[in-house]
Write a structure and sequence with these properties.
about 90 residues, mainly beta, Cathepsin D, subunit A, domain 1, 7 strands, globular
Length: about 90
């Protein structure tokens, strides 16, 4: 599906099988998004380096949300929202 970040159209995947919320490094660099220091840094199991976080508004039609995501080098999509987002927003109910 597609969503808006700032005024740009971005690709978005909502995956209940994923344990993370991530933004692609490409999206962050192209939109000059600012990193946010994570209160409790951690390492993602499938990455060698610990990652940074970014929090930006995402809009899908009339739904607008601000999601804190890890920034990782993914190519399949600009944004991947997994179980943490679904749980926080009660999207499974």
């Amino acid at each position: 599906m597609h969503c808006y970040v700032q005024t740009k159209v971005c690709s978005l995947i909502i995956d209940s099988g994923s344990c993370v919320n991530v933004y692609s490094t490409t999206l962050v660099s192209k939109l000059n998004l600012c990193n946010v220091k994570h209160a409790k840094p951690y390492r993602l199991q499938w990455l060698n380096d610990s990652c940074v976080n970014v929090e930006v508004p995402v809009s899908i039609v009339k739904y607008v949300d601000e999601v804190l995501c890890d920034v990782v080098p993914i190519k399949v999509s600009h944004i991947l929202l997994g179980r943490p987002w679904q749980y926080d927003r009660k999207a499974n109910s």
